Structures are given as C-alpha cells and as structure tokens.
Amino acid sequence: MRWEDLITVTPGVRSGKPCVAGTRITVQDVLEYLASGMSEAEILSDFPSLTSESIRAVLAFAAARERRLASPAA
Residue 59: beta bridge partners? Predict the structure, then answer.
C-alpha cells in the first residue's frame, strides 16, 4: 500500500486539505478521531466509505509529513 494512492489534495475540496481519496474526510479528521480514543472499528462503523487500508494510509501520510518536518533543511 502506498499512501500516495489513497490520500489526495484537491483544490476546492475541504480547502485543499489532504483527504482520503474519493471522500471529503480529511487526514486531520481521522487523526483526531484516533487521538480522541476512537478505535479503528468505531471509525469504520461511523464512516463506511473508509477502509482499514485508508486509515493506515492516513497514518503513513502523517508519519511521512513528520519525517519531512523533522529533517534538517538541505
């Protein structure tokens, strides 16, 4: 699974925030649900358009962004 295939940025959709492909659910939304204590099963139940793979893609996207931010400038 490549997160690049499942996370999209579309101008005009949710103000250009990264979203799960084919949805208006942002990476930030999913991260906040997880941080608040929702389980993957609860998120999938509340948002049937999401899959376990899309939740993993959200986490991989966030990890990649963190790596870029933490890297010293070249």
Answer: none
Tell me the three-class secondary structure of the chain, residue by residue.
Answer: CCHHHHEECCCCCHHHCCEECCCCCEHHHHHHHHHCCCCHHHHHHHCCCCCHHHHHHHHHHHHHHHHHHHCCCC
Domain that holds residue 66: 3-70
In a 13 Å sphere around the CA of 14, the CA atoms on its Cβ side amount to: 16
List, for residues 18-34, the tens digit of each pLDDT value. 999 999 999 999 999 99
Query: HSE (CB half, 13 Å, CA atoms) of 54?
Result: 24
Instruction: Let me know: does 9 contact 17? Beta carbons within 8 Å.
Output: yes
pLDDT at 74: 54
**In CATH, what number is assigned to the domain containing residue 48?**
1.10.10.10
